[in-house]
Design goal:
alpha+beta; two-stranded antiparallel sheet; four-stranded mixed sheet
């Protein structure tokens, strides 16, 4: 049986990118239905974003890069080299537009590629319009939806939900109503936890 996951995340978070990479790798052997729920964790950032040193004073960039890249290596991703923390409000509203048009997986994958691989600023509406076009969304309809903040109430509702549940970290991964994983994860822990859950879900572990 398919194991449903609800993953609370933000595009600015490298650990969420790592979790996305882990999900793609685990899908090679486990049937997952991953639902990505956007939570804007830095709503105070300007549209141009800020450098990580401004967001996390005292951070040691070399140590950060080594830790993140080590975690991402097994999934073939390099999250530690990006030092701009983007404003993600538009990208998360774009996620909801993509959801309405059946393109959530494509949107998440392409936004991560654009941000972490191509090192572009996903707080820039023109960059996001390009992503929409790339994955087959109507760029004019996308721009209108985001400009009108049609999906902002969804982001605000999610923010309230996360505060009500007293979530502290992204990513936070739920299976049903149970919180099963959160924060910085190794692939070993990620795989072990979700394989066991999958077996229980399918009745093999009962």
């Amino acid at each position: 049986m398919t194991l449903p996951l609800r993953i609370v995340f933000d595009f600015s978070c490298p650990y969420c990118y790592i979790a996305w990479g882990y999900v793609q790798k685990l899908k090679e052997t486990v049937d997952l239905a991953d639902d990505w729920v956007g939570w804007e964790i830095h709503p105070d950032l300007p549209k141009g974003g800020r450098m990580i040193e401004e967001v996390v004073p005292g951070i040691v960039l070399s140590e950060r890069a080594e830790q993140l890249n080590s975690l991402g290596e097994i999934a073939g991703i390099v999250p530690g080299n990006k030092v701009l923390v983007p404003n993600t409000r538009l990208a998360l509203q774009g996620l909801e537009f993509a959801r309405d048009n059946g393109k959530v997986q494509e949107w998440v994958a392409e936004v991560y590629k654009t941000s972490f691989v191509l090192d572009k600023n996903i707080g820039d509406i023109e960059v996001l319009i390009g992503i929409a076009r790339q994955i087959g969304l109507d760029p004019a309809a996308f721009e209108q939806a985001v400009a009108s903040e049609r999906y902002l109430p969804i982001l605000l509702k999610t923010d309230q939900e996360c505060m009500d549940k007293q979530l502290e970290w992204v990513p936070t991964i739920f299976s049903g109503t149970e919180k099963v994983l959160e924060g910085s994860l190794t692939y070993e822990i990620f795989e072990k936890t979700l394989v066991a859950l999958s077996q229980l879900h399918s009745g093999k572990g009962i």
